[in-house]
From TrEMBL:
It holds the Pfam family Usp. Residues 22-152 form the UspA domain. CDD domains: USP-like (cd00293). This is UspA domain-containing protein.
Amino acid sequence: MGNATSNKTIEDDSLSEPAVPIVVPWDFSNHAKAALRYARQQFANPDIHVLCVLEAPNPYEIGFQWGVDSEQEAAQKCAEDFAKEAGVQHASETEFECRFGDPADEIARYAKSVHAEFIVMSTHGRTGLQKLVLGSVAQKVITRASCPVILLPNHWYESNDKQIEKADG
């Protein structure tokens, strides 16, 4: 009995890898394109969720006129721009969402809500005073995320830039 074999036919679907939920923050930079491409290439069956976070304007600023319509228009424009940037084929293969607020908080919150197994993002290479004043979104995401964060360093994008352009073209 220990060496018994079965003649059951195994369905192809049962052999396929389960979908891996991955969040890719999107800021329309070439660095974000590189992170999206990396997520597609490194996982056998990625379930990619692209998140664009727009900072809501300060309601205490002079001339503030932001409302639900403005947010919806901004989110719609963001989605349209993503479709143009990523290409229609790739845009249809991903979930896209636009949120408003602090980028690091929203990325961590969204990743948790979609049960992401990974966040894949790039750094922009800020150093010195820029990093001190602006902070690092990536650094904040690492400390707030409930899943592993894969960071593509600025130099990775630059060294792979020509390969990315070839694949896009």
